[in-house]
Specification:
It contains 7 helices and 8 strands, in the order βαββββααβαβααβα. The protein is of the alpha+beta class. The chain has 2 domains: 131 residues, Aminohydrolase, N-terminal nucleophile (Ntn) domain (Glutamine Phosphoribosylpyrophosphate, subunit 1, domain 1), CATH 3.60.20; 74 residues, no CATH class. Strands 1-3-2 form a 3-stranded antiparallel beta sheet, covered by helices on one side. Helix 2 crosses helix 3 and helix 6 packs across helix 7.
């Protein structure tokens, strides 16, 4: 059985380091003696040790799309990956290996998070992606630059950021967290209908959670 590891930086600080990931992978050498690999960005690091079973030569992990906008590591086996592969190939996906891990990359690009309900097997996987904004990771990985769904202050004031600034994982995480807890977009405004709808859903879930917790507390106090 293979082994996977990962690091995510959730607040400003030093970039994720390769040495730390290498130390983590070294502790799992017995789980994956055939191959190892690392994917790094400033905010995220993924690592894998592989015991080659499916596609002995072509299943190197982490698997990454062109441009590095989507990366995955997997441990286990997707039992129905041949059927998923046929469906994705018919939809126009171009596979470069016969490994079941590559199915995860194309499945996410084709179906988004709905892909989880299509998987059959015993697997654990980590998927790094920049979701939602500008068409999602699939379109961004193809170099398609749509109009943004969210308006960040760095986009309006050139004195606040470089000219080619684009939001990263931390920016989206901060937006989601503040919207869900304060019921308001604190430093960013939604521009598109889907962004506004998504933020309204987050606020509704948060409000419902608060009301349920308050109701429970009242019952306890009684």
């Amino acid at each position: 059985m293979c082994g996977i590891a990962g690091i995510v930086r959730l607040r400003p600080g030093p970039a994720v380091g390769q040495e730390q990931l290498e130390r983590m992978l070294a502790t799992m050498l017995h789980r994956g003696p055939d191959d190892s690999g690392i994917f790094l960005t400033d905010e995220c690091g993924l690592g894998a040790r592989r015991l080659s079973i499916v596609d002995l030569t072509g299943g190197h992990q982490p698997m990454v799309t062109d441009g590095g906008h989507l990366a995955v590591v997997q441990n286990g086996e997707i039992y129905n990956y041949p059927a998923l592969r046929r469906d994705l190939t018919a939809a126009g996906c171009d596979f470069h290996t016969t490994c079941d891990t590559e199915v995860l990359l194309h499945a996410y690009r084709a179906w988004g998070l709905d892909m989880v309900g299509r998987l059959r097997g015993m697997i654990a996987f980590a998927l790094w992606y920049w979701e939602f904004d500008r068409g999602g990771p699939g379109r961004r990985s193809e170099g398609i630059r749509e109009y943004p769904d969210f308006l960040f202050p760095q986009m309006q004031n050139p004195d606040l950021a470089p000219k080619d600034w684009e939001p990263s994982f931390v920016d989206y995480l901060y937006l989601s967290f503040t919207n869900a807890t304060a019921f308001s977009p604190t430093d960013v405004m939604p521009l598109t209908h889907r962004a506004k709808a998504g933020m309204m859903v987050e606020s509704a879930i948060s409000a419902t959670t608060v009301l349920l917790a308050a109701a429970r507390a009242v019952n306890i106090l009684r």
